[in-house]
Amino acid sequence: MEEKVVITQGKYLTSAVKKEQYPEVQRKEFVFIGRSNVGKSSLINSLTRVHQLARVSSQPGKTQTINFYEIGAKLGDNPERKDFYLVDLPGYGYAKTGAKRRKIWSQFINEYLLSSETLQFVCQLIDIRHEPMASDIEMFRWLVEHNLPVLVVATKADKVSRNGVAKSIAQIKNALGVPELDVLPYSSVKNTGREELLQVIGESLVH
Predict the structure, then answer these.
(1) All structural domains of the chain
(2) pLDDT tens digits, residue range 192-202?
(3) DSSP, residue by residue, the chain
C-alpha cells in the first residue's frame, strides 16, 4: 500500500535572481517550469491547497524571479513532518519579453538548475490543448542533456475530453521524441493528477 502524502502547511519563502538570495537552509527541491501562462501558479495552489500561495496572473511573463515556497507534509503514519521547497521558475517563450531580458532570465535559470545540490526533479508543464512548441521541446532537451530528471505534466486537462487527453499525451510524447515517456495529465480546477504528483514527491522525500 502506497503511503498517503498530506500537505500540512505551505508558505512563500523568498524570491531570487542570484545564488546569494537562495534559501539558507537546504531542503529537497521540486521545480516547476513551463511556458508563460501554462498554469504553474494554479498548479502550485492546487497541489498545496493553500489559497493564493502562488499568485495567479492573467498577464503572461509576470513571474520574473525564482520563487521558493516552503512546504510541510506528513507521509503515511509517520508523525514527523517532512519539509521541502517547491520552486517556481519564470515562464519561458513569452514574445513580449525583450531579447536582452530573456537572456538575463535564461542565465539565472540555468545557473539555478545546474547548481542546486538538492533538486529532486523538474516538473515541465505543457498545455495539453496545444502541441508542444519549439521552446517546450528545446527546454525538455536541455534538461535531458544536463541529466536533470524531468516529469512532464500536461496542464489544463479539464479543458479536453477523456479521449482528447489520451490523444494529446500521445502528441506530446511524439513531439518530445520519447515514446515511453511518462506524462501526467493535471487539472488545477478538478485536482486531477494531484495525488499522483504528491506520490512522486513523497517517494523522493523518503529516499
Answers:
(1) 5-206 (3.40.50.300)
(2) 999 999 999 99
(3) -PPPEEEEEEEEEEEESSGGGS-SS---EEEEEEBTTSSHHHHHHHHHT-TTSSPP-SSTT---SEEEEEEEEEETT--SPEEEEEEEPPPB--TTS-HHHHHHHHHHHHHHHHH-SSEEEEEEEEETTSPPPHHHHHHHHHHHHTT--EEEEEE-GGGS-HHHHHHHHHHHHHHHT-TT--EEE-BTTTTBTHHHHHHHHHHHHH-
